[in-house]
Amino acid sequence: MFGKMMNRYYYGKSGKGDYTTEDLPQTRWALFWEMLRVRFSALFRLNLMYMVAWLPAIIVIGRGLMMAYTGLVNVGELQVQAEAGEIAMEVFTEANATLGEAFKAILMQTLILLVPAIAITGPFTAGISYVTRNWARDEHAFIWSDYWDAVKGNWKQGLLTSVITGFVPLLMYVCITFYGQMASDNVLFIIPQVLVIIMSLLWLCGLMYIYPQMVTYSINYKGLVRNSLIMVIGRLPMTVGLKLLSLVPTLIAVAVGLLTPYAVYAAMVLGLYYILLGYALSRFVAASYANAVFDRYININIEGAQIGRGLYVESDDDEEEEEQAEKLEDPSAPEA
Known about the structure:
By secondary structure, this protein is an all-alpha fold. The protein is 78% helix and 0% strand. The chain is built from twelve helices and no strands. The termini are far apart.
C-alpha cells in the first residue's frame, strides 16, 4: 500500500485525453488556446519548480540593481546638499562624474557572476521544455516525474547550451564596448561590432528551437545548433516577434519605472509575474510555435514521423463515412 502511494506521488494520476479524435482542434491557433486553457493552472506549478534553478541568477541581478540604485540615491543626496550650500558643488560634480564608471563596474561584475548562474539552468530548461512540448500538442506529461526524467536525460546538451548562453551577455558587452572605442578612431570597427550583436541575437533566438529539439530528437550538438539557426533564419519575423512578445512584461515595468514614481511597485509586480507564471508561459508559447516549425522543416523529412500532433487529421475511415453519407443523400450517385 505504501509503495502504491509513493508511486502515485511520484508519477501522479493518469488522466484521460482532453479530446476525442472527432473533437480535436483543426488549426494550430485553436490548439494553442485550448491547450493554454486546459494547462493554465498547471503552468503555475511548473513555473514554481523551474524558478528554483533561476534563483541564483535572480539574486545576482537583484544585487546589481540594488547597488546601482544605491549609487543613484547617494548622488541625489549630494546634489541636494550642493544646491543647499552644505557641500561644495565640486564634490557633487566629481561624484556625478564617477557614477558612470561605477555603473560600468557594477554591470561588468553582474555579467561575470551571471555566467555560472545561467549555466546551471540548462538541464532544467530541458525539463520544462519537454513538459510544455507535450502539453502544447495535447499529450500527457507528469509535472514532477517527466520534468526530472527530461532533466536527467538531457543534462549534457542542456548544460552546454546554458554555459554558452551565460557567456553571451558578457561577450556581447565586452565586444560592443571594445569595438565601440576602436570605432571612434576607425569607422570600420563598426562592422565586427554589428556582427557580434547579430550573432548574439541569433543565438538567443535559436534557444526557442534548441531546447525543444533537444528533448524531441536524437541528434548531436552540432546538428542541434545548425538546425536551430536555419529555423531562426527561415522563420525570422515570427521568431523575433515571439521573443519581443516574451519581453513585453519587462518593457512595461521599465516604462512604468521611468515615467512614473512607482518604479519599486513595477519591479515587485514584474518579479511576482516571473515567480508565479512568466517562465513557464514563455516556454509554452515557444513550444507551441516550435512544434509547428518542426513539422514544416524536420518531421516532413523523417519517414513515419507524425505531423500535426494534437490536430484533427481526416482519416480514411472518415472519408469512407463521408462517401456513404453522400450516397444516402443522393441515391442516384453511381456505386464505386
